[in-house]
Structures are given as structure tokens and as C-alpha cells.
Amino acid sequence: MNKETLRIWTARLLIGFVVFTIGFSVGRKSAPLPEPGTFATEAATTEVGHVRVYAAHMTFRCPECTQIELLTRELLQQEFQDELADGTILFQTVDYMRDRAFARRYNISSSTVVVVPLRGEKQDDFQRLDEVWTKIHNRDDFFAYVRSAIQTSLDTL
Fold this sequence. Notes:
The protein has helices at 3-30, 63-79, 81-86, 100-105, 132-135, 139-155, and strands at residues 50-57, 89-95, 112-119, 122-123, 127-129. It has 157 residues and is an alpha+beta fold. It is elongated, with a radius of gyration of 20 Å.
């Protein structure tokens, strides 16, 4: 490869990198951000038990990651209002890249939903719902999948 060809390919790679970086930045800023925090407070949890629903995400949220959280919030607000209000269900978003202990505890390597039934603060089991990625484009499938996991956890209390 001569110097001229090398120069042309280097310029193309640099231009491609700049275009990719700008697109990445624009996509990041244009994705709707969900409301942070939880629906219920820690004080609302009952001694009998409660279910924690975590929307685990990366520090940088792609549109799909954001959609996973938004659909989970929508399901909880539509179908589990009473449980949210009385503290039987707690919802929380977690940046698993910043909270390494959380990522290790639930073996998380990508954005997901984790459903954890607790008695007091004692955790016996959890469900990591990795298939949310394949269901985000079909709201009914997503709702059925996440609803089933939440209901199963509620039934164990």
C-alpha cells in the first residue's frame, strides 16, 4: 500500500469515527429519559414481605434500554397500582455499571429487569428477566412476561 492510499483510508476512518460519534451523541440526547427513583418508599414495605422490581440499565441508555424501563413502569402503574401504593411492590432503577455489587449479586451484564421477593430484607430467590430484550417490540408479550414474574413473586410472599 502506497502513502497516498494509506492517507485516503486514514482520512475515511477518521471521518467515519466522527460521524459515528456525533450520531451516538445525538441518539443519547434524544432518547426519552424515564423518571428516576422509585414508586414507593422503603418505609412503606411490610414486615410480611414485598417484591422489588429493578430496572437495571447501563450508564449510557440506548433506546431499547429506555424502552425496557418505560414498559416496566407502565405495567406496574396499570396493573399493580395497589401493590405500589401499599409498598408490597417497590420499583427502582439501578445503573448496574456503577453499582458493581448489584451487578454481581444478580449476574447482570446487560440491561434487564430483576424481580426479587423479600421477607423483611431476607432474599430467597430472584428472577432475572433477560428475555425483555426480545419482547420490547411487542407490548402484550412484554407485559405478559414481566407480569408473570411479578405475580409469581407476589404469590410466594
